[in-house]
Amino acid sequence: MEPLSLFFAAWLVGLTGGVHCFGMCGGIVGAVTLGLPAMPGSMLQGRLAYLLAYNGGRIASYVSAGMLAGGVGAWAAHLMAVHRAQLALQVLAGLFMVLLGLYIGGWWRVLGRLEEAGGRLWRRIEPLGRRWLPVRTPAQAFGVGLVWGWLPCGLVYSVLVWAIGSGGAVQGGLLLLSFGLGTLPVLLAMGTVAAALAGFLRRPWVRYTAGALIAAFGGHKVWVAVAAA
């Protein structure tokens, strides 16, 4: 099982990257909640049900991808010299953690290129989500979330690299679950609450602190793997 610090790092990436996620998914969230049918109870409760369904589908896709990445990594390690393969994957994951920390802190935007690379796959997947629009039921919102969970995102791709070196499908799934839960506060918040939270997460000291912590986790992971080689 991965140490709790790595799950915390994945959650922190999701939380501090929530503003980035809102920028990419905000329009989709609007499409999910715009023109909802009349429902019993308050409008806020009705919208929350749809938002929870959408984000549940999105996180389910993250977890599926994490389990796949973790399983592939474990399978590849068994095909090679297991010990050395695991150490190599841990070094790779640690390096991506450092890059992600630099990205979160705003010091180096190199991971943005991953989103450009993922755009090719997204062009094939995106039309599937249109079948669920306009959204009329929470089940349809869940379906939209399942598709849009594959939206090209450098943050998601980086955590998937961690999952490859996590040691198994369960660990990989839990890493992506931690990341997905971290993105929830901004994407579930509405109106002035969302604006206030996004404003807080945009503060330089918040980004710098989170970026430094994540980069430090990555550096430690690399150091442990190299020392064990």
Automatic annotation (TrEMBL):
The keyword Transmembrane applies. Pfam families: DsbD_2 (PF13386). The chain crosses the membrane at residues 59-81, 87-111, 141-164, 176-201. Keywords: Membrane, Transmembrane, Transmembrane helix. The lineage of its organism: Bacteria, Pseudomonadati, Pseudomonadota, Gammaproteobacteria, Candidatus Competibacteraceae. It comes from the Bacteria. This is Urease accessory protein UreH-like transmembrane domain-containing protein. The keyword Transport does not apply. Residues 9-218 form the Urease accessory protein UreH-like transmembrane domain.
